[in-house]
Amino acid sequence: MNVNNDAVTPLTHDPRRADRYVVGVDYGTLSGRAVVVRVRDGAELGSAIFEYPHGVISERLPGDPAGGPGDGPRLAPDWALQHPLDWVGVLRTAVPEALRAAGVQPGDVVGIGTDFTASTPLPVRADGTPLCLLDELAGRPHAYPKLWKHHAAQPQADRINAVARDSGQPWLARYGGKLSSEWQFAKALQVLEEDPEIYARCERWIEAADWIVWQLTGVESRNVCTAGYKGVFQDDRYPSAEFLAKLDPGLAGLVTEKVEHPLSQLGGRAGGLTAQAAQWTGLNPGTSVSVGNVDAHVTAAAVRATGSGQLVAIMGTSTCLVINGEQLREVPGMCGVALGGIVPGRWGYEAGQSGVGDLFAWLVDNAVPASYVEAARAAGETVHQYLSRLAARQAVGEHGLLALDWLNGNRSILVDHHLSGVLVGLTLDTRAEDLYRALVEATAFGARRIVDAFDDSGVPVREFVAAGGLTANPFVMQVYADVLNRPISVGPEQGSALGSAIHAAVAAGEYPDIHTASAAMGSVRRDAYLPRAGEAAAYAELYLEYRALHDHFGQYGGDTGTGVLHRLRAIRNAARVDAARVEATAVGQAAGGEHG
Question: What does the pLDDT look like over 6-50, one tens digit per residue?
Fold first, then answer.
């Protein structure tokens, strides 16, 4: 399979020439953000956010495909879908608003770049039309894009891993020994098994990162990042048809019929804006569009971390950790490694935590007394800020709690999304700020477990760089510095959008490569948070307890550890299915009564 570099001759920078600009668009879990950035120095001149009307579709399908979350069919447990019209809404709303805010003329914009959460694949027709937009399929859950946090394909992932181990698939080690249920193949197998008609009508199975570029350029393209990390593209090939047939004979043609396409390097030019996309965005037709990318990996350029050994943690609802290395290593429990997966020419490694900011939000939304909400309002703070301030007053270990950060499963090191959160040490003295601090510490311990895995496997971490929304919380950042016992550099809060803009500049020929563009347009505060000796020593002791709890409930628990969490998940899922069946029966009887 060939790799298309789509080379562009770089333009000569002439200070007498008028400024040029690029647009970066970051597609997140709940919203999309567009930024307008100056090419010569990366200055952000305007931005806008578009909140997805459908949000994360996890309870019911929308009753009206064009409306918000609705009253359509109920979804089973562990589902998480999105709606492609929300993504187009970002182009039609956020990009024009950002241009207006920046005061930039369309003719001065030389390129646009996008990034996406991943793995977020969707079934489409040969012309790119999502199946969920067809009237006759709008009520079928498998016709919709499966968001990265869709974990209902865990049984399929378990079977993929078992068959891969039994048949000695060489690519399995490139994913730490396990493929995640979040990745493309488990989700495709779930579609085939649970709705074979949707699978049959799916002519292209494509990541949202590539689909949105298709909508901008009118031409299908595929990028090496999502192919390598989410699509199991290793050593210039996908898993064989023979292996896929062992999973299900109907899956044998997945790659050749629905996935395979020449791959483009990151920073390459995918094409130019179509007339329709130009109308959506307010940009000129033909404006350069860069190759698709993943939100985490694109951020490395934004924080000037394109060299080897610089681990970038993009900290938001979840955390993705990426790092470049000079050599290929096998890291237990990593999400994947791909040549050119972050920058061309280097081995890019990925790991992650499936829940971080989501954990703190869960606590605030579900377990904070009204008195705390009132106190935060009186202090002119958000509840997060109020809890952070109270928690920061505590000494390490003062709350007596220890938590496992698995409320949304474990992406690394265990790669098991049927694990769940664990909290020990509760007493009648436990308060909301204690729980908040314990969850922050749990996510920091989880990050340290990942850093240790890289260090121990010959991928040394020489710098820890944080980016994303959680960097705005000094308490969280200081806890991480103390737990990791290393300095933390901090990049822009919205680094993904800037990273996409940087890739757009390279694709438009404004810079010869991502390294050069990153140095000119990126931004980072080196060693913004330093570990405190006393706190770091105390956390080192607590981390040993975390590792013991982690291994008991994760790797070595058997019937008393992992087995308990898995059985609890199964009992919960069965109860929810029964509740949905009872509800459906009641609705059907009511409808029959109305028409009887």
Answer: 333 334 444 445 899 999 999 999 999 999 999 999 999 999 999
388-406 tens-digit pLDDT: 999 999 999 999 999 999 9
The dihedral over CA atoms of 550, 552, 557, 563, expressed in degrees to the nearest 10, equals -50
Type of residue numbered 517 = A
Distance CA 188, CA 142 (A): 9
Assigned domain for 185 exists:
yes
| The dihedral formed by the CA atoms of 446, 452, 458 and 462, expressed in degrees to the nearest 10 | 90
User: Based on the domain organization, do 291 and 391 belong to the same domain?
Assistant: no
Total count of domains within the chain: 2
Nearest to 549, CA basis, from 362, 423, 418: 423
Please check whether residues 363 and 261 belong to one and the same domain.
no
Q: Give the per-residue pLDDT at 18.
A: 80
Same domain? 374 vs 274: no
Angstrom distance (rounded) from CA 210 to CA 220:
7
Same domain, 423 and 281: no
Tokens of 304: 């000037």
Q: What number is the average pLDDT over the span 204-208?
A: 98
Q: What is the mean pLDDT of residues 519-526?
A: 98
Are 288 and 376 in the same domain? no
Q: Are residues 272 and 367 in the same domain?
A: no
- Is residue 456 included in any domain, yes or no? yes
The least confident of 5-19, 47-61, 206-220, 449-463 is 5-19
Q: Higher confidence at residue 505 or residue 74?
A: 505
Q: Which domain, by its residues, includes 112? A: 18-296
Contact 89, 27 (CB under 8 A): no
| 173 lies in the same domain as 255 | yes
Query: What are 404's strand-pairing partners?
Result: 422
d(CA 24, CA 22): 7
Dist. CA 342–CA 514, nearest whole Å: 10
Q: How far apart are CA 122 and CA 87, in angstroms?
A: 13
